[in-house]
Fold this sequence. Notes:
Elements: H1 3-18, H2 23-28, E1 34-41, H3 43-46, E2 68-77, E3 83-84, E4 89-91, H4 101-111, E5 116-122, H5 142-159, E6 164-172, H6 181-185, H7 187-202, E7 209-212, H8 220-223, H9 225-241, E8 245-248, H10 268-286, E9 307-315, H11 317-320, E10 342-351, E11 356-357, E12 362-364, H12 376-386, E13 390-397, H13 403-406, H14 419-435, E14 439-448, H15 457-477, E15 485-490, H16 503-512, E16 517-522, H17 536-556
Parallel strand pairs: 1-5, 1-6, 2-5, 6-7, 7-8, 9-13, 9-14, 10-13, 14-15, 15-16
Antiparallel strand pairs: 2-3, 2-4, 10-11, 10-12
Helix pairs in contact: 4-10, 7-9, 12-17, 15-16
Amino acid sequence: MHLNDVARSLFALLFFLLIPVPLVARQNDDDQTLRIFIFAGQSNMVGSDSKVSDIARFPPYVGLEQPQDNVKFSYCIGRETMLKSDGWVNLQAVNNVVGPELSFARKVTQNIKAPIAIIKCAAGGTHLGGDWNPDEPDGFEMYPLTLGLIKSSLAELDRQNIAYRIEGFMWHQGENDMFNEEYMVNYGINLKNFLAKMRRDLGIPELKFYIGELCTKTIWGMDLRPRMYAISLGQKSVTDADPLAAYVPTSHVGVEIGGGVGLHYHYGTLGQLEHGENYADAYLNTIGINTHRIRPLKEWPYQPGQKIRLFVLAGHRNMEGERAFVQDLGSLKEGKSLLDDNQKIAFKYSVGGGYQTSDDWEPLGPAGCYNTFGPELSFGKRLQGNLSGNIAIAKFTHSGTQIVDWTPAGSVAKSRNIYADFIAFIEQAIQELENKGQTVELAGIFYHLGENDMSFGPFRKAAAGHLQALVTQSRVDLADPALNWYVSQQLPTNDEQVNSIDVTADVENVAATDNHLVHIKVFDLPGQEQKLVITSAGIVELGEVLAESYLDHAERR
C-alpha cells in the first residue's frame, strides 16, 4: 500500500472514532437505569370491556394474568371512582381489566436487559380539548392529575435512590373529541400543545411520544367514519411534524365482539393485548431493535423459465386470521403439518394494512402479526397436493377496513383507501417473479367478504355494489378482463337489525352476471365462539374450501 493511502486510511479511522456514539445507542447500552414509560388516555387505554379471565382464551398471551414482579407500576385509573396504587407496586391487572401495559411490558423486557417501570393515568370518556387540556383543564382535570401522579411516583424513586429516566409517553385518546365539533377540528393543535406542555412541565424537551391510532374496526370506525378520520388527520399532523412523536397503527388489532350485530366500541381483551404489543414494537424500533422474525427461503424453489400460478388472497379480519393462533394447530387434524415452513411455495404478504410485510419472498408458513395465521396455510397445502406445476401465494389484508375502502372510489376517509396499494401489491408480486425468470399466470384473487360489512346495516346494503366495483376495476387495472375472482362469504350476522337486508342474494346476483366470479358460501364452518370471527379450526377449513373451489372451477374449464 502506498504511504499516502496508509495516511488516508489512518485519518479515516481516526475521524470515525471521534464521531460521537448516537444518543439512542448509548442509552440502549445502559442496562442499569430504570426506564419509565407513561401510559395515558381514555377508555381504550384503560382497557374497557376486557377481562383478565379471558386471557386464557388467547394462547400467545397466557401468563399475563399474573403479576410481573420485575416491572414497577404506579397508577391512577378511572373517573368518579379512581383506582390508585398509592405508590409503586408490581405490574398487574387492575380491577380485573386488561390494559395494554401488560403485553407491552412483557415484550419490552424480553428484548432489553434494563429494568422498566410504568406510570398509568387513564379515564374513559375524557377529552383532550377539556379534561386533558394543559392550559384550562376541566371535567376530571386529567392533565394536572397525570402530571401529579408522574411527579409523586418519581419522588418515591428519588427517596429510594433509584436511578431512572422517562423513556416514552404512550397516548391513546380521541374518540370523545370527535363528538365535540370544536375539539374535533382542533385536535391536531391541541395535541401539539399537549406534547409541548408535558415536555415543559416534566423538564424533558426530547421526551418521545407514541400516538396510538383510533381503531377503525369498531362500530365508530364505520358509522362515524368522517369524524374518526378528522381525528386521525390531527394526530398525523403532529407525528409528521414532530421527529420525537411516532404514529402507532392499531386499526388491525382484535376488537371485542358485542351483543346484537356483534360490533363494539372497545378493543376488549385480545385487542388490548395486541395494542400493547404495537406500542412495544414502536418503542423497540426507535432503539434499533426489530422483533420481526426473518423467514428466508433456503433456495428459490422454481427453475428459471418455469411457469408459476400466482394465487392472491385478500380481505379483512378472517383472511388475516385475527383469532387463529399458531398454538392451536397442534391439536387440529393435520394441523401440525401446517406449522412448518413450506420451502416449495414462495409466499409474499402485507397484513394489517402494511403493519407487517414479508422480507422479499418467504416460504409459506405462519406469518401473522401476533402468532396468528390465515387460510393461506391449508389453501397452499391442498393446492400443492392436487395441482401439477408450481404455485406461489401473495396475501394482502387489512382487518381494520370495510369493503368501501377497497373500492376505486374509496370514501371520505382518504387515508383508509387501499385499492391503489392492493393493485400495486399484485403488480409488484408479478414483476418480482418475472424478474426471477419465471412466467406468471395470475390464477385468481380469493377475497373473503368483509365481516363488519355483514353486520352494519348501511354497509351490508352496499356490500355487493362495492364488491362489484372492486372486481370490475381490478380487471381493467391489471389488464386481465377474464381475471377470476373467488369470493367467499361466511354466514351473515343473524340479527333483527339487519336481517331485512339479504346480502347473500345481493352477492348471488352479482355473481350471476359475471362468468368469472365464483361465489363461495362457507356457511358450515366449525362453530365460532362469537359472531364475526372465525377461530383456528374454521380458518384451516376456509383455506381448504377456497382451494377446492379453485380446483373444481379449473376442472370445469
